[in-house]
Design brief:
Domain PDZ: 80-163
Keywords: Coiled coil, Hydrolase, Protease, Serine protease
Distance between the termini: 70 Å
Number of domains: 5
Structural class: alpha+beta
CATH class of the largest domain: Alpha Beta
Helix content: 40-55%
Coiled coil: 455-489
CATH topology of the largest domain: 2-enoyl-CoA Hydratase, Chain A, domain 1
Strand content: 15-25%
Protein name: S41 family peptidase
Family: Belongs to the peptidase S41A family.
Length: 539
């Protein structure tokens, strides 16, 4: 109880140190609620019928409180803080694999070529079921942490591959995760640069790639930000600075607290302010990716191609707490040079609500083109194949496209990068695969029909409208079948990406993009047509 009182007094003192005047309206209400919570916490710990874990109880309370805000305001323990530092640095000690966790195993989703995981014989699609002496299914925490360790230390993995159990010993190493994993000179003197994340080395890697491509003869550039989730805001400004002159506003932030209001301008001499630029985005391009694409669009510095970006216009800042923990708190919204905030969702009582297009506000680019807030960055040239419908998102959420692709490669032993050809037949096989495992796509309309059935049953109307509801469900099922047909091209693309990655790492996927990718084709076409390029930019 003495410790709980000390906690309350510490909180009150900290609150007071911020300035009583600023918080006087809420001060007593906050102190009152903290005291109520402290007493409740004590009573539950002392009197609950079963034994409780005080730390777990408090973590639950913290997470529930933050869940009521937005998904980016989170509590970090010491390990999570370290993970964030590693992610931003682009260098870490581990095995060099992208993983995803399931209740039963850790699945290898991707491999860095020549990494410890790759050299040890691990393959994409492998399911790790045991790490050392620990069964993954029995481990209550994040089993992926067990793969980390000091450089040159060994770890023994038991895994399942195509229903066969294997044991592999690998030696951990220092992994350098490149922000620019690929760049090349395409035909027609078009330089192609993939920027996959905004780590501390993002801008320097883009500069190096650009300079090398120009030496090889590049006279126009494609910057690929598709599937880039973002990262450091400072690096977003620096990457924009590669193409935009010094002293130009790239973004600014607004907050409820004045000291967090900031403007971010380019600080360095640009590498090339004249070279034609096409930026590729999709629905998984978020945060820092949207600062770069949004500023390039607002300043009419290049053409944006693909599908509407994710729409994350919020800025977080870490705040130190006790015992080495932190809170990452949303402190402000960021705005592109035209003044628009591209945040696509509002958060009310913990629920996310997508903004309606009728709520969008019009803004003007430097050359007077119309752009809009509230829904991510809308491309100048839209490519349907990059859009993800709710059906596609449901399939990806269940990992069904990935699982089918791995199974397809495993069943076709003769398959390699040279003889694999994308075709519509593979989509038919995928349809058979998900039907066999019993996947059912439940649309929002399905949910509403179920609600209507429940309501009609409770109000004794079900017998009179039963036939109508069955007809409605039958028509909906027909429309869902059409939805599958409409997604044939996108499914073909996604399956091809997964198959090629399994056969030849990310390199094979980039080769597919540059040889057959629809988005890159359109980017090259518009860059080659200077009159159309300038017309889009309002020149």
């Amino acid at each position: 109880m003495r410790n709980l009182k000390l906690l309350l007094l510490t909180f009150v003192a900290a609150l007071t140190s911020y300035g009583f005047t600023s918080y006087k309206n809420d001060f007593f209400e906050i102190a009152k609620q903290i005291e109520i919570f402290t007493n409740l916490y004590k009573e539950v710990n002392m009197n609950y019928v079963d034994q409780v874990n005080p730390a777990e109880l408090m973590n639950t309370a913290i997470e529930a409180m933050l869940n009521d805000l937005d998904p980016y305001t989170v509590y970090w323990n010491e390990q999570e803080i370290q993970n964030a530092r590693i992610k931003n640095s682009g260098s870490y000690t581990g095995i060099g694999a992208e993983i995803t966790s399931t209740p039963e195993s850790i699945v290898i989703k991707n491999l860095i070529k020549n990494s410890p995981a790759d050299l040890s014989g691990l393959e994409i699609g492998d399911k790790i079921i045991k790490i050392g002496d620990i069964e993954v299914k029995d481990y209550n925490e994040d089993a992926g942490e067990l793969l980390k360790g000091s450089p040159n230390t060994e770890v023994v993995l038991q895994l399942k591959r195509n229903e066969t159990i294997k044991t592999i010993t690998l030696k951990r190493g220092v992994i350098k995760d490149k922000a620019v994993p690929h760049s090349e000179l395409l035909e027609g003197k078009t330089g192609y640069i993939v920027l996959s994340q905004f780590t501390r080395t993002a801008s320097s890697e883009v500069i190096e790639a650009l300079q090398n491509l120009k030496k090889e003869g590049a006279t126009q550039i494609i910057l690929d930000l598709r599937n880039n989730p973002g990262g450091l805001l400072s690096e977003a400004v620096n990457v924009s600075n590669v193409f935009i002159k010094k002293g130009t506003l790239i973004t600014f932030t607004k907050s409820a607290i004045e000291k967090y209001n900031s403007t971010y301008t380019t600080q360095n001499k640009a590498i090339d302010t004249e070279i034609p630029v096409a930026v590729l985005i999709n629905e998984n391009s978020a945060s820092a990716s949207e600062i770069v694409s949004g500023s390039i669009q607002d300043l009419d510095r290049g053409v944006i191609i693909g599908s509407r970006s994710y729409g994350k216009g919020l800025v977080q800042r870490p705040k130190k707490l006790n015992y080495g923990t932190q809170a990452k708190i949303t402190i402000s919204r960021y705005y592109t040079p035209s003044g628009r905030c591209i945040q696509a969702l509002d958060y009310r009582d913990g629920e996310s609500i997508r903004k309606d297009e009728s709520e969008y506000t019009e803004f003007k680019t430097r050359n007077g083109r119309s752009v809009y807030d509230g829904g991510g960055v809308n491309p100048d040239i839209e490519v349907n194949i990059e859009k993800e419908s709710k059906l596609i998102k449901a399939l990806k959420k269940e990992n069904l496209i990935f699982d089918f692709s791995i199974d397809y490669v495993n069943r076709n032993k003769e398959l390699n990068i040279e003889n694999f050809e994308t075709n519509r037949k593979i989509v038919k096989e995928f349809r058979d695969y998900i039907e066999k495992i019993g996947f059912e796509y439940e649309s929002d309309t399905d949910k509403k029909i179920d609600e209507l059935k429940e309501m009609a049953t409770s109000e004794n109307y079900i017998n009179s409208i039963k036939n109508s509801l069955e007809d409605l469900q039958r028509q909906l099922d027909e429309e869902k079948q059409k939805a599958f047909q409409n997604e044939t091209e996108t499914l073909d693309k996604l399956i091809t990406e997964n198959v090629l990655r399994k056969l030849g790492y990310d390199e094979a996927v980039y080769a597919y993009y540059t040889e057959q990718g629809e988005v890159i084709k359109q980017a090259v076409n518009i860059l080659n047509a200077s009159q159309d390029y300038n017309k889009i930019l309002g020149r």
